[in-house]
Amino acid sequence: MKILLIEDDKESAKYLIKGLREQGMVVDHCDNGKDGLFMAMSEKYDAMIVDRMVPEVDGLTIIQTLRASGNETPVIVLTALDKVEERVKGLKSGADDYLPKPYSFTELMARLETITRRKPGEKSVTKLTCEDLEMDLLTRSVKRAGKEIDLQAREFALLEYLMRNAGTVVTRTMLLEHVWDYNFDPQTNVIDVHISRLRQKVDKGFEKSLIHTLRGAGYKLSDR
Length: 224
Hints:
Layout (H helix, E strand, L loop, with lengths): L1 E5 L3 H13 L3 E5 L2 H10 L4 E5 L7 H10 L6 E5 L4 H9 L4 E4 L4 H12 L10 E4 L2 E4 L4 E4 L2 E3 L3 H12 L7 H7 L11 H13 L8 E4 L3 E4 L3
Parallel strand pairs: 1-2, 1-3, 3-4, 4-5
Antiparallel strand pairs: 6-7, 7-8, 8-9, 10-11
Helix pairs in contact: 2-3, 6-8
């Protein structure tokens, strides 16, 4: 997942960025609302984490502006203002969730997974599946034919992106941007190495391969 974090407290931001990246997520960060709003309007993110009291443009104004423009990126508001009326105000502004400080990182992750599942016209799900491959987004576990597959954070992020786009060709550029946060080609074989590792863990020993390479096009997760 690609996350935009708008947080002006340096220590809080550092803690969050480290935690999110350890979970295999791509994180963009800015420390003021003006730049944060510009980034939110200019880039595509899977979710946003916004501190309510950021300088220049406050968190709720950021959300209201995004919603007024038709931007429906899921947003969690972080704030020290934890009274009921403040939470109601935050949700009415268009936020998807409202988490008072101090908070548990584990709870933040659970809430993040929840809001990214909320898409218009779709049922809320806790799992991604393809054939007999199953990924639990809450427990961050993967199984194939009931067998547990142990993945590193980056491998999990790569497989998650492939599963979210199952049946669709994803290009190397798409993977570099959404899994590695690169906006350029590093001219390395990092994708090939991780795809190879995933194949060893996901496909080896099974009759049917799910991870396919389309020469000159990219990769596809598919049962055929």
